[in-house]
Amino acid sequence: MEPGNTPLVELRNMAPAGTRLFAKLEWHNPTGSVKDRPAWRMFHEDRAQGKFGKGEPLIEATSGNTGIGLARVALLEGNPMHICLPTSASEERRQLLRAYGANLINVEGGPNDAIAYARELVAAGEGHMCYQYGNPANPDSHEFGTALEIIRDWPLATPPDHFLCAYGTGGTITGNSRGLRKHWSDLAVHSVEEDLSDTIGGMRNQQDPFQPPVADLGLVKDRYVIGRAEAEAKVAETMKLEGHFVGTSSGAIIEAAQRELSTNGGTAVVLLPDAGWKYLSGNPWQ
Ligand code: PMP
Q1: Is this structure's pTM higher than 0.85?
Q2: What domains can you pick out in the chain, each with its CATH number?
Q3: Is the CB of 171 under 6 A from ligand 1?
Q4: Of residues 33, 141, 191, 249, which has the active-site annotation?
């Protein structure tokens, strides 16, 4: 099954007074996250372009979600999958990756160390890397997928004023800002970033020394840097007020959207990357 066509719902109990907040629920993708979209597109485009062939091993550096999405496509298509994973990746992600048949390579440190190690393996001829940080199919999966779905499903007569999403590889924000702004030229795009000293899985900060080549932040208006405790508190609140069990980056995005709407009013649409299941082992909601 191809990813996409996830629900766009209103968060009726979380919009500040006089504003409206809508959310695209990306955990409705086949492996439970937004990253099924770029994983599917990178695999199929790279193979169509002859960058790897049938049965050839794939290598990827990922904090989890892209790897899970890629492992699923690789399993379906018969390619071995090697994942370089930073030690910070959660236990649930490791178990999921193994369940999807991937071989895990633990790399001491954070996501940037995992990228460096994966590059060494590719240089040694161990396999092909789709390389989510530099592959145009990553933002394209949003420009020609997610963004068109949001436009198609938007329920109000007037366009949204704001779009907010996390900044990780930059695929989501780059592709959606391109796709959405083609149709809604006045839409303000805002990035939600982790605090450099207080990381959130899957997210990045514009001050991080590594900026993914695929990221084009030229259309970003406001930046919101959200701490992990605020994000986790928002996850608990979203569960209570809306009945959605969102992941930690989604908590950060909802927090940022509420700040934006409180200050500037109007309507906002947010993209929520995954659900909370994979974060339970960290016990953030005890
Ligand atoms: N949140 C989570 C949980 C993620 O896995 C990712 C992907 N790294 C993001 C946010 C950010 O998305 P993107 O890589 O498209 O910037």
Answers
A1: yes
A2: 8-29+136-282 (3.40.50.1100), 36-129 (3.40.50.1100)
A3: yes
A4: 249
